[in-house]
Amino acid sequence: EPGLYIVATPIGNLSDLSPRAGQVLAAADLIAVEDSRVTAKLLHHLGVKRPMLPYHDHNADRMRPELIARMATQAVALVSDAGTPLISDPGFKLVRDARAAGVPVTTLPGPCAAVAALTLAGLPTDRFLFLGFLPAKAAARAQAIAEVAAVRATLVLYESGPRLGDCLAALAAGLGEREAAVAREISKRFEECVTGTLDELAARYTEAPPKGEIVVIVAPPGDAPAPDADAIDAALAEALTRLP
Ligand code: SAM
């Protein structure tokens, strides 16, 4: 069927590609890709060859009209290098323009590092704010952090290994003492999720910058960890000793 198909792809483990995603890619007339070498590997894994067209930040404005035109008669799939297209990846304007042109748009949901990290962190998930990548420069980063300091939601952001220590220190400075988690290499061999306060994590990762791909999760303000049963018992016992 002609139209635009938004196809989520694995963030590390090829087995996470859904069967439906595989079927749509195998049947696509054209696949719009960020990096054809990355998607070629995925197609190789599926044992298929499909025409690919690059669609990335540097050529998107030029490519979009051509892609939209082709969707009138062809099945065009959009993938990014990993995870869900449009999430810190190109695609939103393509969907917007496809809709404006009356092209049918459908999505094949699947892996997304932000959501996967939320499921690992053990921090509140009822309200969260996705920040993508914070600015790299210190002043702009501090400003971006200040803007969300009062938001009563868990924060989710992407960061690179070399910048992680600085980023966590900036978060600690701008947000104060909060619980946080660093999820790394999700769905890959060295997956891990390290939890602690922002200060603890900043110290750890400044000392030893990690390798691999990273999501940072920060608890909402005022969300000190709930006391455990022993702590509550101890507090009660202490209070009882002071009863008249
Ligand atoms: N669209 C993608 C998604 O749905 O997650 C995100 C694309 S963004 C350009 C890439 C960033 O996502 C990485 O720098 C890292 O912060 C995060 N990421 C991607 N894969 C990851 C993984 N397996 N584990 C942890 N973080 C990951």
Sequence-ordered SSE layout with sheet pairings:
Elements: E1 3-7, H1 19-27, E2 30-33, H2 36-46, E3 52-54, H3 60-71, E4 75-78, H4 92-100, E5 105-108, H5 113-121, E6 128-133, H6 138-148, E7 154-160, H7 161-175, E8 179-184, E9 192-197, H8 198-207, E10 213-218, H9 229-241
Parallel strand pairs: 1-4, 1-5, 2-3, 2-4, 6-7
Antiparallel strand pairs: 7-10, 8-9, 8-10
The best one-word shape is elongated
Count of helical segments?
9
Order of helices and strands: EHEHEHEHEHEHEHEEHEH
Most strands sheet:
5 strands, parallel
Span of the ends, CA to CA: 79 Å
The residue ranges in which pLDDT falls below 50 over 5 or more consecutive positions are none
Structural class by sheet pairing and helices: alpha/beta
- Mean pLDDT across every amino acid position: 94
Rg: 22 Å
Sheet-strand content, in percent, reads: 15-25%
| Order of strands in the sheet with most strands | 3-2-4-1-5
Bound molecules: S-adenosylmethionine
Description:
With 244 residues, the protein is an alpha/beta fold. 41% of the residues lie in helices and 21% in strands. It has helices at residues 19-27, 36-46, 60-71, 92-100, 113-121, 138-148, 161-175, 198-207, 229-241; strands at 3-7, 30-33, 52-54, 75-78, 105-108, 128-133, 154-160, 179-184, 192-197, 213-218. α6 links the parallel β6 and β7 (154-160). The mean pLDDT is 94. It binds S-adenosylmethionine. S-adenosylmethionine binds at residues 11-12, 80, 82-84, 87-89, 112-114, 158, 183-188, 213-215.
